[in-house]
Amino acid sequence: MVSTVGMGHFGMKHIQFTALLLFTAALLMAEKPKSTLSLMPMSADQIAVYQAVLASYSNGSNSSSVNLSDTTVVLDVSDLGGNGCLEGITLKDTEQAKSITHKLPPEGLPTKFRLVDPKKQLKIIRKNDPDRTISAGKPVRDAVETAFGTGILTLSEVVFDQGHENAVLSFSFYCGQLCAHGETIVLHKENGQWKRSNRTCRGWISYTRQRPHSF
Predict the structure, then answer these.
(1) Quick check: is 125 in a domain?
(2) What are the tens digits of pLDDT across the range 37-58?
(3) Cα–Cα 20 to 30 A to 63, which of 49, 143, 176, 180?
């Protein structure tokens, strides 16, 4: 089954199934919009935002490591203006975030994350999709744990406001057709450190009949 959820105070009434489908398609790198891999290095703030997100991320599994896509995906925030999560925040360079991607630098990543080629990893995920392995007779718990271990976390580009006090990005974890979750979140810079705010623009979970994901 598929469930959409608004995680936090903002945007709970505005998460819709159509948005879920579009969001999932973009972050799973299927037929995503044409993008250009930037040769420019990421800014220190962009790297710091990724580090903050990864430091607090959990996909709910017992696996000691998480596969992380070595390439970001584009970010389109044009449909977020109506749900209140960006109230009082004016973002810049939003058009650029819709057209470029970056390679993630391995330096500074939490040790539990392993950079992987997303195209190669998706082939492994398809083989271990719990929908397929459960149908083949594998116990549900074993199928889900195996899927979590081969799943992939993908980060989008980051957009900032003019003062670099707020940042927006999306992430998704995908381990099969009914084994995925993701969010579009806002981070705020406090005393020089990026921290997740209580603003969540969009969140979704797609889960097996046995075990939903946790955040």
Answers:
(1) yes
(2) 999 999 999 999 999 999 999 8
(3) 49
